[in-house]
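PROTEIN DESIGN WORKSHEET
SECTION A - STRUCTURE
LENGTH: 441
C-ALPHA COORDINATES:
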Protein backbone atom coordinates (compact mmCIF):
# COMPACT_ATOMS: atom_id res chain seq x y z
CA UNK A 1 0.00 0.00 0.00
CA UNK A 2 2.86 2.38 0.75
CA UNK A 3 4.25 1.83 -2.74
CA UNK A 4 0.84 2.35 -4.35
CA UNK A 5 0.15 5.48 -2.29
CA UNK A 6 3.46 6.97 -3.39
CA UNK A 7 2.80 6.03 -7.01
CA UNK A 8 -0.88 6.99 -7.25
CA UNK A 9 -1.27 9.56 -4.48
CA UNK A 10 -4.18 11.35 -6.19
CA UNK A 11 -6.23 8.20 -6.94
CA UNK A 12 -8.24 8.07 -3.70
CA UNK A 13 -11.03 5.70 -4.79
CA UNK A 14 -8.58 3.21 -6.26
CA UNK A 15 -6.38 3.22 -3.15
CA UNK A 16 -9.45 2.79 -0.92
CA UNK A 17 -10.63 -0.25 -2.89
CA UNK A 18 -7.20 -1.90 -2.89
CA UNK A 19 -6.66 -1.31 0.83
CA UNK A 20 -9.99 -2.92 1.73
CA UNK A 21 -9.12 -6.06 -0.21
CA UNK A 22 -5.53 -6.32 1.03
CA UNK A 23 -6.59 -5.93 4.65
CA UNK A 24 -9.13 -8.72 4.18
CA UNK A 25 -6.80 -11.20 2.48
CA UNK A 26 -3.61 -10.56 4.50
CA UNK A 27 -3.85 -13.68 6.69
CA UNK A 28 -4.81 -16.11 3.94
CA UNK A 29 -2.22 -14.62 1.56
CA UNK A 30 0.54 -15.18 4.08
CA UNK A 31 -0.49 -18.82 4.38
CA UNK A 32 0.40 -19.31 0.69
CA UNK A 33 4.12 -18.67 0.10
CA UNK A 34 3.61 -19.59 -3.56
CA UNK A 35 1.49 -16.42 -3.95
CA UNK A 36 4.28 -14.29 -2.54
CA UNK A 37 6.90 -15.97 -4.71
CA UNK A 38 4.87 -15.20 -7.84
CA UNK A 39 4.17 -11.64 -6.57
CA UNK A 40 0.44 -12.16 -7.08
CA UNK A 41 -0.62 -9.04 -5.15
CA UNK A 42 1.85 -6.77 -6.92
CA UNK A 43 0.53 -8.00 -10.27
CA UNK A 44 -3.13 -8.08 -9.26
CA UNK A 45 -3.38 -4.44 -8.20
CA UNK A 46 -2.16 -3.09 -11.56
CA UNK A 47 -4.52 -3.22 -14.58
CA UNK A 48 -3.41 -5.15 -17.65
CA UNK A 49 -3.89 -2.00 -19.73
CA UNK A 50 -5.73 1.32 -19.86
CA UNK A 51 -7.01 2.90 -23.07
CA UNK A 52 -7.54 6.68 -22.99
CA UNK A 53 -9.01 8.46 -25.99
CA UNK A 54 -10.59 11.73 -27.12
CA UNK A 55 -14.29 11.69 -27.98
CA UNK A 56 -15.38 14.55 -30.25
CA UNK A 57 -19.05 15.05 -31.08
CA UNK A 58 -21.45 17.80 -32.19
CA UNK A 59 -24.28 19.04 -29.97
CA UNK A 60 -27.76 20.17 -31.09
CA UNK A 61 -26.52 23.74 -31.53
CA UNK A 62 -23.94 22.55 -34.04
CA UNK A 63 -21.08 23.21 -31.63
CA UNK A 64 -18.14 20.81 -31.33
CA UNK A 65 -17.76 19.16 -27.92
CA UNK A 66 -14.81 17.13 -26.62
CA UNK A 67 -14.75 14.56 -23.83
CA UNK A 68 -12.33 11.91 -22.64
CA UNK A 69 -13.11 8.21 -22.94
CA UNK A 70 -11.50 5.31 -21.09
CA UNK A 71 -11.41 1.52 -20.95
CA UNK A 72 -9.55 -0.17 -18.10
CA UNK A 73 -8.92 -3.85 -18.82
CA UNK A 74 -7.95 -4.95 -15.34
CA UNK A 75 -7.58 -8.73 -15.17
CA UNK A 76 -8.41 -11.64 -17.49
CA UNK A 77 -7.15 -14.59 -15.41
CA UNK A 78 -10.53 -16.34 -15.30
CA UNK A 79 -12.18 -15.07 -18.48
CA UNK A 80 -12.51 -12.21 -20.98
CA UNK A 81 -12.69 -8.69 -19.60
CA UNK A 82 -16.20 -7.83 -18.37
CA UNK A 83 -17.49 -4.63 -16.84
CA UNK A 84 -19.71 -1.64 -17.43
CA UNK A 85 -19.34 1.76 -19.05
CA UNK A 86 -20.07 4.83 -16.91
CA UNK A 87 -21.01 8.22 -18.40
CA UNK A 88 -20.80 10.82 -15.66
CA UNK A 89 -19.11 14.19 -15.26
CA UNK A 90 -17.11 12.88 -12.28
CA UNK A 91 -15.50 9.96 -14.16
CA UNK A 92 -11.72 9.80 -13.71
CA UNK A 93 -9.04 7.12 -14.24
CA UNK A 94 -8.98 6.59 -10.44
CA UNK A 95 -12.73 5.89 -10.38
CA UNK A 96 -12.50 3.43 -13.27
CA UNK A 97 -9.44 1.68 -11.82
CA UNK A 98 -11.29 1.16 -8.54
CA UNK A 99 -14.34 -0.13 -10.37
CA UNK A 100 -12.27 -2.46 -12.58
CA UNK A 101 -10.43 -3.79 -9.53
CA UNK A 102 -13.73 -4.42 -7.71
CA UNK A 103 -15.20 -5.98 -10.84
CA UNK A 104 -12.40 -8.56 -10.97
CA UNK A 105 -13.43 -10.02 -7.61
CA UNK A 106 -17.14 -9.52 -8.12
CA UNK A 107 -17.02 -11.48 -11.38
CA UNK A 108 -15.03 -14.23 -9.70
CA UNK A 109 -17.75 -14.52 -7.05
CA UNK A 110 -20.42 -15.16 -9.69
CA UNK A 111 -18.71 -18.50 -10.55
CA UNK A 112 -18.93 -17.48 -14.24
CA UNK A 113 -15.78 -17.20 -16.43
CA UNK A 114 -15.40 -13.42 -16.57
CA UNK A 115 -12.41 -11.16 -15.92
CA UNK A 116 -12.62 -7.59 -14.63
CA UNK A 117 -12.83 -4.31 -16.55
CA UNK A 118 -14.52 -0.90 -16.48
CA UNK A 119 -14.78 2.07 -18.77
CA UNK A 120 -16.64 5.25 -19.53
CA UNK A 121 -16.34 8.97 -20.07
CA UNK A 122 -16.65 12.32 -18.31
CA UNK A 123 -19.58 13.03 -20.67
CA UNK A 124 -22.55 14.32 -18.64
CA UNK A 125 -25.90 12.96 -19.94
CA UNK A 126 -27.93 15.34 -17.74
CA UNK A 127 -29.93 17.72 -19.91
CA UNK A 128 -28.80 16.13 -23.19
CA UNK A 129 -31.26 15.24 -25.94
CA UNK A 130 -31.60 11.72 -27.36
CA UNK A 131 -29.88 12.92 -30.54
CA UNK A 132 -26.92 14.30 -28.58
CA UNK A 133 -26.59 11.09 -26.59
CA UNK A 134 -26.71 9.08 -29.83
CA UNK A 135 -23.99 11.18 -31.44
CA UNK A 136 -21.79 10.92 -28.35
CA UNK A 137 -22.24 7.12 -28.15
CA UNK A 138 -21.36 6.76 -31.82
CA UNK A 139 -18.21 8.88 -31.40
CA UNK A 140 -17.26 6.91 -28.27
CA UNK A 141 -17.62 3.56 -30.05
CA UNK A 142 -15.59 4.85 -33.00
CA UNK A 143 -12.57 4.78 -30.65
CA UNK A 144 -13.47 1.73 -28.55
CA UNK A 145 -14.58 -0.87 -31.08
CA UNK A 146 -11.22 -2.44 -31.90
CA UNK A 147 -10.49 -3.01 -28.19
CA UNK A 148 -13.57 -5.17 -27.52
CA UNK A 149 -15.08 -8.46 -28.68
CA UNK A 150 -17.20 -11.38 -27.40
CA UNK A 151 -14.08 -13.35 -26.35
CA UNK A 152 -11.93 -10.31 -25.59
CA UNK A 153 -13.76 -7.58 -23.67
CA UNK A 154 -17.53 -7.28 -23.21
CA UNK A 155 -18.74 -3.89 -21.91
CA UNK A 156 -22.17 -3.32 -20.37
CA UNK A 157 -24.10 -0.44 -18.84
CA UNK A 158 -23.47 1.41 -15.59
CA UNK A 159 -24.29 4.88 -14.24
CA UNK A 160 -25.51 7.00 -17.17
CA UNK A 161 -25.54 4.04 -19.56
CA UNK A 162 -28.80 2.12 -19.89
CA UNK A 163 -30.60 0.26 -22.67
CA UNK A 164 -30.85 3.37 -24.86
CA UNK A 165 -27.10 4.01 -24.72
CA UNK A 166 -26.22 0.34 -25.25
CA UNK A 167 -28.43 0.40 -28.36
CA UNK A 168 -26.63 3.42 -29.80
CA UNK A 169 -23.22 1.93 -28.95
CA UNK A 170 -24.04 -1.43 -30.51
CA UNK A 171 -25.46 0.12 -33.67
CA UNK A 172 -22.16 1.88 -34.27
CA UNK A 173 -20.13 -1.22 -33.38
CA UNK A 174 -22.10 -3.30 -35.89
CA UNK A 175 -21.52 -0.72 -38.63
CA UNK A 176 -17.78 -0.56 -37.96
CA UNK A 177 -17.15 -4.29 -37.44
CA UNK A 178 -19.48 -5.33 -40.27
CA UNK A 179 -20.69 -8.35 -38.31
CA UNK A 180 -23.68 -9.06 -36.09
CA UNK A 181 -21.81 -9.95 -32.90
CA UNK A 182 -24.49 -9.51 -30.22
CA UNK A 183 -22.15 -11.00 -27.59
CA UNK A 184 -19.87 -7.93 -27.69
CA UNK A 185 -22.13 -5.88 -25.37
CA UNK A 186 -24.60 -6.88 -22.67
CA UNK A 187 -27.69 -5.05 -21.46
CA UNK A 188 -29.08 -5.09 -25.00
CA UNK A 189 -32.70 -4.71 -26.08
CA UNK A 190 -34.88 -7.81 -25.77
CA UNK A 191 -35.54 -7.92 -29.54
CA UNK A 192 -31.86 -8.07 -30.55
CA UNK A 193 -29.99 -10.36 -28.21
CA UNK A 194 -30.72 -8.95 -24.76
CA UNK A 195 -31.61 -11.20 -21.86
CA UNK A 196 -34.96 -11.08 -20.14
CA UNK A 197 -34.56 -9.61 -16.61
CA UNK A 198 -31.18 -7.99 -17.35
CA UNK A 199 -32.46 -4.46 -16.56
CA UNK A 200 -33.80 -5.63 -13.19
CA UNK A 201 -30.95 -8.02 -12.38
CA UNK A 202 -28.68 -5.86 -10.20
CA UNK A 203 -31.54 -4.79 -7.96
CA UNK A 204 -33.19 -8.23 -7.95
CA UNK A 205 -29.92 -9.98 -7.13
CA UNK A 206 -29.18 -7.51 -4.33
CA UNK A 207 -32.49 -8.29 -2.66
CA UNK A 208 -31.96 -12.04 -3.07
CA UNK A 209 -28.58 -11.67 -1.34
CA UNK A 210 -30.12 -9.49 1.39
CA UNK A 211 -32.83 -12.09 1.89
CA UNK A 212 -30.21 -14.86 2.38
CA UNK A 213 -28.24 -12.64 4.77
CA UNK A 214 -31.35 -11.97 6.84
CA UNK A 215 -32.37 -15.64 6.92
CA UNK A 216 -28.86 -16.56 8.10
CA UNK A 217 -29.31 -14.04 10.92
CA UNK A 218 -32.75 -15.46 11.79
CA UNK A 219 -34.67 -12.52 10.31
CA UNK A 220 -37.08 -11.94 7.42
CA UNK A 221 -37.54 -9.02 5.03
CA UNK A 222 -41.33 -9.30 5.12
CA UNK A 223 -42.84 -6.13 6.60
CA UNK A 224 -39.49 -4.36 7.09
CA UNK A 225 -38.95 -0.73 6.07
CA UNK A 226 -36.31 0.02 3.44
CA UNK A 227 -34.58 3.27 2.49
CA UNK A 228 -32.65 3.27 -0.77
CA UNK A 229 -30.67 5.89 -2.63
CA UNK A 230 -30.95 6.82 -6.28
CA UNK A 231 -33.81 6.31 -8.71
CA UNK A 232 -31.99 4.82 -11.70
CA UNK A 233 -31.94 1.31 -13.05
CA UNK A 234 -30.41 -0.30 -9.95
CA UNK A 235 -32.68 1.45 -7.47
CA UNK A 236 -35.69 0.64 -9.67
CA UNK A 237 -34.85 -3.08 -9.64
CA UNK A 238 -34.20 -3.03 -5.89
CA UNK A 239 -37.49 -1.25 -5.17
CA UNK A 240 -39.40 -3.66 -7.41
CA UNK A 241 -38.04 -6.81 -5.76
CA UNK A 242 -38.20 -5.38 -2.21
CA UNK A 243 -41.91 -4.70 -2.70
CA UNK A 244 -42.44 -8.17 -4.18
CA UNK A 245 -40.78 -9.73 -1.13
CA UNK A 246 -43.10 -7.84 1.20
CA UNK A 247 -40.82 -5.02 2.32
CA UNK A 248 -41.92 -1.38 2.45
CA UNK A 249 -39.71 1.07 0.50
CA UNK A 250 -40.14 4.38 2.32
CA UNK A 251 -37.41 6.57 0.77
CA UNK A 252 -35.59 7.20 -2.50
CA UNK A 253 -33.10 10.00 -3.13
CA UNK A 254 -31.25 11.98 -5.77
CA UNK A 255 -28.62 14.73 -5.99
CA UNK A 256 -31.29 17.29 -5.09
CA UNK A 257 -32.64 15.63 -1.92
CA UNK A 258 -34.84 12.81 -0.64
CA UNK A 259 -38.41 11.70 -1.27
CA UNK A 260 -39.99 10.16 1.79
CA UNK A 261 -42.86 7.76 1.07
CA UNK A 262 -44.44 6.94 4.47
CA UNK A 263 -46.96 4.39 3.18
CA UNK A 264 -44.43 2.64 0.96
CA UNK A 265 -43.67 2.93 -2.74
CA UNK A 266 -46.43 1.85 -5.14
CA UNK A 267 -46.19 0.03 -8.47
CA UNK A 268 -47.07 3.26 -10.26
CA UNK A 269 -44.25 5.09 -8.50
CA UNK A 270 -41.79 2.33 -9.38
CA UNK A 271 -42.82 2.63 -13.04
CA UNK A 272 -42.34 6.40 -12.82
CA UNK A 273 -38.73 5.90 -11.69
CA UNK A 274 -38.00 4.75 -15.26
CA UNK A 275 -39.55 7.94 -16.64
CA UNK A 276 -37.44 10.01 -14.25
CA UNK A 277 -34.27 8.23 -15.31
CA UNK A 278 -35.04 8.66 -19.03
CA UNK A 279 -35.77 12.39 -18.61
CA UNK A 280 -32.07 13.20 -17.91
CA UNK A 281 -33.24 15.78 -15.35
CA UNK A 282 -31.67 13.86 -12.43
CA UNK A 283 -34.19 15.25 -9.93
CA UNK A 284 -35.91 13.02 -7.39
CA UNK A 285 -38.27 15.92 -6.62
CA UNK A 286 -40.15 14.89 -9.79
CA UNK A 287 -41.59 11.94 -7.82
CA UNK A 288 -43.16 14.26 -5.24
CA UNK A 289 -44.51 16.52 -8.01
CA UNK A 290 -46.09 13.53 -9.74
CA UNK A 291 -47.46 11.94 -6.53
CA UNK A 292 -47.95 14.84 -4.09
CA UNK A 293 -50.26 12.88 -1.78
CA UNK A 294 -47.84 9.96 -1.39
CA UNK A 295 -44.34 11.45 -1.43
CA UNK A 296 -42.75 14.32 0.47
CA UNK A 297 -39.61 15.93 -0.96
CA UNK A 298 -36.93 17.41 1.32
CA UNK A 299 -34.11 19.23 -0.48
CA UNK A 300 -30.48 18.65 0.50
CA UNK A 301 -31.18 15.52 2.56
CA UNK A 302 -30.20 11.87 1.97
CA UNK A 303 -32.27 8.73 2.35
CA UNK A 304 -30.18 7.95 5.44
CA UNK A 305 -32.03 10.69 7.33
CA UNK A 306 -35.21 8.58 7.14
CA UNK A 307 -35.89 6.06 9.92
CA UNK A 308 -35.75 2.54 8.45
CA UNK A 309 -34.85 -1.09 9.22
CA UNK A 310 -32.69 -1.69 6.14
CA UNK A 311 -30.51 0.79 4.23
CA UNK A 312 -29.63 0.04 0.59
CA UNK A 313 -27.16 2.45 -1.07
CA UNK A 314 -27.93 2.11 -4.80
CA UNK A 315 -26.37 5.19 -6.40
CA UNK A 316 -22.66 5.99 -6.22
CA UNK A 317 -19.41 5.16 -4.44
CA UNK A 318 -18.87 6.60 -0.94
CA UNK A 319 -22.43 7.92 -0.85
CA UNK A 320 -22.94 6.78 2.76
CA UNK A 321 -20.36 8.23 5.18
CA UNK A 322 -19.59 7.81 8.88
CA UNK A 323 -22.06 10.48 9.98
CA UNK A 324 -24.78 8.88 7.85
CA UNK A 325 -24.04 5.51 9.46
CA UNK A 326 -24.33 7.02 12.95
CA UNK A 327 -27.63 8.68 12.01
CA UNK A 328 -29.01 5.39 10.68
CA UNK A 329 -27.99 3.51 13.83
CA UNK A 330 -29.51 6.22 16.03
CA UNK A 331 -32.76 5.80 14.08
CA UNK A 332 -32.80 2.03 14.64
CA UNK A 333 -31.41 0.69 11.35
CA UNK A 334 -29.98 -2.81 11.84
CA UNK A 335 -28.95 -3.83 8.31
CA UNK A 336 -27.07 -2.19 5.43
CA UNK A 337 -26.24 -3.89 2.14
CA UNK A 338 -24.22 -2.00 -0.49
CA UNK A 339 -25.98 -2.20 -3.82
CA UNK A 340 -23.74 0.45 -5.38
CA UNK A 341 -20.03 -0.24 -5.82
CA UNK A 342 -18.16 0.73 -2.63
CA UNK A 343 -21.25 2.68 -1.57
CA UNK A 344 -20.02 3.16 2.00
CA UNK A 345 -16.88 4.91 3.19
CA UNK A 346 -14.41 2.93 5.37
CA UNK A 347 -15.59 4.93 8.38
CA UNK A 348 -19.21 3.97 7.70
CA UNK A 349 -18.32 0.28 7.36
CA UNK A 350 -16.33 0.37 10.61
CA UNK A 351 -19.25 2.12 12.36
CA UNK A 352 -21.70 -0.53 11.17
CA UNK A 353 -19.46 -3.47 12.05
CA UNK A 354 -18.45 -2.13 15.47
CA UNK A 355 -22.13 -1.64 16.35
CA UNK A 356 -23.17 -5.13 15.31
CA UNK A 357 -25.13 -3.97 12.25
CA UNK A 358 -25.57 -6.58 9.52
CA UNK A 359 -23.41 -5.36 6.64
CA UNK A 360 -22.40 -6.77 3.24
CA UNK A 361 -20.22 -5.21 0.51
CA UNK A 362 -21.18 -4.28 -3.03
CA UNK A 363 -18.94 -6.82 -4.76
CA UNK A 364 -21.16 -9.55 -3.29
CA UNK A 365 -24.53 -7.78 -3.02
CA UNK A 366 -24.66 -6.26 -6.51
CA UNK A 367 -23.07 -9.13 -8.44
CA UNK A 368 -26.47 -10.11 -9.86
CA UNK A 369 -26.15 -7.55 -12.64
CA UNK A 370 -22.91 -8.87 -14.07
CA UNK A 371 -24.04 -12.43 -13.38
CA UNK A 372 -27.06 -11.89 -15.62
CA UNK A 373 -24.78 -10.24 -18.18
CA UNK A 374 -22.84 -13.50 -18.12
CA UNK A 375 -26.09 -15.39 -18.68
CA UNK A 376 -26.83 -13.02 -21.58
CA UNK A 377 -23.42 -13.88 -23.09
CA UNK A 378 -24.24 -17.59 -22.79
CA UNK A 379 -27.56 -17.11 -24.57
CA UNK A 380 -25.86 -15.07 -27.32
CA UNK A 381 -23.15 -17.71 -27.83
CA UNK A 382 -25.80 -20.44 -28.07
CA UNK A 383 -28.18 -18.35 -30.22
CA UNK A 384 -31.03 -19.03 -27.80
CA UNK A 385 -33.24 -17.06 -25.41
CA UNK A 386 -34.29 -18.27 -21.97
CA UNK A 387 -37.61 -17.51 -20.29
CA UNK A 388 -37.88 -15.03 -17.42
CA UNK A 389 -38.30 -17.94 -15.00
CA UNK A 390 -35.13 -19.66 -16.23
CA UNK A 391 -33.07 -16.48 -15.91
CA UNK A 392 -34.53 -15.65 -12.50
CA UNK A 393 -33.87 -19.16 -11.21
CA UNK A 394 -30.25 -19.00 -12.37
CA UNK A 395 -29.81 -15.52 -10.87
CA UNK A 396 -31.24 -16.66 -7.54
CA UNK A 397 -28.93 -19.70 -7.52
CA UNK A 398 -25.87 -17.52 -8.24
CA UNK A 399 -26.73 -15.07 -5.44
CA UNK A 400 -27.24 -17.98 -3.04
CA UNK A 401 -23.84 -19.37 -4.08
CA UNK A 402 -22.19 -15.97 -3.50
CA UNK A 403 -23.77 -15.79 -0.05
CA UNK A 404 -22.51 -19.28 0.78
CA UNK A 405 -18.97 -18.34 -0.36
CA UNK A 406 -19.07 -15.25 1.87
CA UNK A 407 -20.18 -17.38 4.83
CA UNK A 408 -17.48 -19.99 4.12
CA UNK A 409 -14.60 -17.52 4.06
CA UNK A 410 -16.06 -14.89 6.40
CA UNK A 411 -17.13 -16.91 9.44
CA UNK A 412 -15.00 -15.87 12.40
CA UNK A 413 -13.95 -18.04 15.40
CA UNK A 414 -16.76 -16.55 17.50
CA UNK A 415 -19.33 -17.51 14.85
CA UNK A 416 -19.78 -13.94 13.60
CA UNK A 417 -19.83 -13.58 9.79
CA UNK A 418 -17.62 -10.85 8.32
CA UNK A 419 -19.16 -10.49 4.87
CA UNK A 420 -16.50 -8.01 3.72
CA UNK A 421 -13.68 -10.42 4.49
CA UNK A 422 -15.64 -13.38 3.14
CA UNK A 423 -16.37 -11.74 -0.22
CA UNK A 424 -12.82 -10.48 -0.67
CA UNK A 425 -11.13 -13.78 0.21
CA UNK A 426 -13.51 -15.86 -1.93
CA UNK A 427 -12.95 -13.68 -4.99
CA UNK A 428 -9.22 -13.33 -4.42
CA UNK A 429 -8.53 -17.06 -4.05
CA UNK A 430 -10.15 -17.86 -7.39
CA UNK A 431 -8.30 -15.12 -9.30
CA UNK A 432 -4.97 -15.69 -7.54
CA UNK A 433 -5.04 -19.43 -8.17
CA UNK A 434 -5.76 -18.88 -11.87
CA UNK A 435 -2.91 -16.35 -12.15
CA UNK A 436 -0.52 -18.76 -10.42
CA UNK A 437 -1.43 -21.66 -12.71
CA UNK A 438 -1.03 -19.55 -15.87
CA UNK A 439 2.57 -18.55 -15.13
CA UNK A 440 4.30 -15.19 -14.93
CA UNK A 441 2.67 -13.08 -17.63
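SECTION B - SEQUENCE
RESIDUE ASSIGNMENT:
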Amino acid sequence: MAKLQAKYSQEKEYLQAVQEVLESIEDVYNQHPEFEKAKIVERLVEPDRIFTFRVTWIDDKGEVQTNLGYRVQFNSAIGPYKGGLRFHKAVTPSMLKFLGFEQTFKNALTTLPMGGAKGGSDFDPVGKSDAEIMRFCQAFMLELWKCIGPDQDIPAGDVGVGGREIGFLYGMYKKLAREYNTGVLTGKGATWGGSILRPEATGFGALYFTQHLLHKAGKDIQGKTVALSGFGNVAWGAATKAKQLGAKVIAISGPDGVCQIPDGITDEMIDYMLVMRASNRNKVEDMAVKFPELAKFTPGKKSWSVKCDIALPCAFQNELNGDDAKELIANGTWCCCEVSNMGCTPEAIHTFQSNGILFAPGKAVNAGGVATSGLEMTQNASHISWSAQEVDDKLHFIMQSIHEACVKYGTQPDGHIDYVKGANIAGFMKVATAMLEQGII
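SECTION C - NOTES
Residues 217 and 358 are 8 Å apart (CA to CA).
The chain has a mean pLDDT of 95.
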